[in-house]
Amino acid sequence: MSQNFEIRREVVLNAGPDEVFAAVTTGTGGWMFPSELDPGVGSEGPDDPTVVAWEPPQKFAVRQEGPGGWFNALEYLIEARDGGTAALRYVHSGIFTDDWDAQYDGADKHTTFYLHSLGQYVQYFAGRAATYITTAGPDTSTGPGAMATLRGALSLTDASAAGDAVSVDVPGFGTVDGVVDYLTPHFIGIRTADALYRFYGRNAFGGTVDAAHHLFAAGADQEKSQDAWKSWLANVFA
Fold it and tell me: Phi/psi of residue 67, each to 5°?
């Protein structure tokens, strides 16, 4: 049964309004996933919603519509704060058509993680181009204990917390030395000097354990990196 939903957040980010506006419009590949939108109202990428508000650096909004009144809309309101920071008011609204509770729970938890990643991006990598790689875990990562398996592969324990050092060797990619910047039962974030590594426990929402990473090092090889992480995940859940 179709039902409306709305998810609201307000966060303070360690960046000015101009940097935040750039991040949520043309810089989404650095913290969420790439968008192919061009600046200005009415812009529409091949798989993206239409821009309905473009007022730099205060407001950005997009909306996508479908049959039967279905819609999906995002709104970002940005306000300057003291000390070179900015407040972001975020609203995601729309209609879920199936299994409303599960879809809302998944979207709500993803929102918190995405906005945290936005904060990491504007604080540590603002304005830097990202090579975005993503890979879905194998079917063996759908079980309820899959995230515990992943944490073990990353040498994380029940006592691990944000701020802890982490090191993992990924054949064909290299050694990742960084710090845990986000850790919940469903998501893991690792930040290094030149990347944000993100792991999504979508097994909790009917999917697999997936990886989506944002590489800021010059010359990062997207295909090679993606293949290496796909193999690493397959080995973790073999």
Answer: -60, 150
